[in-house]
Amino acid sequence: MLANAIPRLNNLKNVHCSMRWKDMYSFLRILETINHRLDGLSLMPTDGTGELKFPKFKHLTQFAYSANGGNPAEVYDFLLRNKGTIRTIHLQNLNWTFPSDVISIRNLTHLDFLGTLPPESRALADILSNGHQLESLRLQCLLECSASVQFRDYPKALPFLRHFSLTLLGYRVNDYDFFPSLSEFLRGRTHLRTLQLIVPSADYAHKRLGYDANVWGVLPSLTNLRTLSATLPKDVAAAVAMWLVPRTVQCLTLHALPTDDTVSFVSQLRAGLPPHLKYVGISQSQVHEPTAVIEHGFPMVKLARFDDDYYTVTRAVEGQVRLDEWPKSRMRYNATEWLEWFECEEAEWRDPSEFL
Asked: Who contacts 334 (Cβ-Cβ below 8 Å, separation ≥6)?
């Protein structure tokens, strides 16, 4: 059926495919038969690590690939063929390193990479020195290299950066200047609208990577920030933390709260919250009383998220807070549209399957 239908879709511009790799192999062979030019391709094999035969496209502007293993050779050959036209790249495979040699970083406006930065990696230096047009940069990585020097070498790089995310999935290095150097790189970027800084453990990141109060101290200089998603540093007091968050922030997500008494902790945050906060998320934390957390800490928000569960926040006439959990189907298939409906579309990072 697809073999007959797809070649007839003359206005087809973007294709997202998520299926078993054997089925995807057949689908890509069909896709290669179309005669018109595609702009975007997103591939997410749901099982296995089999090798895919990519279509001979040469003019893609957007490409996304997410997998759990496999040899990157075919993907890299495909990227090399489209090197001159690609503007947006999402590559997600923890076993792969950053492919500086097969992409033109200077042409990119959006870069999303999940993978490993090995001990000899110069990926950050390549991105910072060549990514002059980058507006959005997300790095989710296993850090094995001393990256602080690379940030120190390019303190004014990426002048058009508006969205920045760094999530450490793990680290095998002691680089005490890593977060201080990153903080100086971010300081004073008044065009930045989204910032994500997430570490697996605030305690160990403090000891080994310098993730301390000075990182949080950069926030007041980001005067147009709309979305903040971060792990609270170990040495930032709860009563002080929210006063450092820019008053422009409307979407806030906190990771790994440093206590089991969540209600008491968020009560200390409340006084310093930004006045126009619409969305709050709490991740990697034990939350036994979601309603109490919102009522005592974030009563002004429209939406709340606790790990993977979304809630609409409403208030009764008496002022009591009520949480209505979203159906699973809405969370899985329509979360983006509902976030836009509540004017919270900037709360979540754009999924690789969504095209610009």
From this structure: none
Instruction: Return d(Cα 129, Cα 147) in angstroms, integer.
Output: 14
β-partners of residue 92 are: 66, 114
Structure confidence by residue, pLDDT tens digits, 194-240: 999 999 999 999 999 999 999 999 999 999 999 999 999 989 998 89
Helices (H), the chain: 2-5, 21-31, 73-81, 123-130, 148-153, 178-186, 202-209, 213-216, 238-241, 262-269, 290-297, 328-333, 335-341
> And the tokens for 304?
């709340």
Closest CA to 346 of 229, 266, 244, 247: 229
| pTM, rounded to two decimals | 0.94
| Contacts for 26 with CB less than 8 Å, ≥ 6 apart | none
155-200 per-position pLDDT tens digit? 999 999 999 999 999 999 999 999 999 999 999 999 999 999 999 9
Among residues 178, 164, 112, 181, which one has the least CA distance to residue 141?
Answer: 112
52: its two tokens: 């895919």
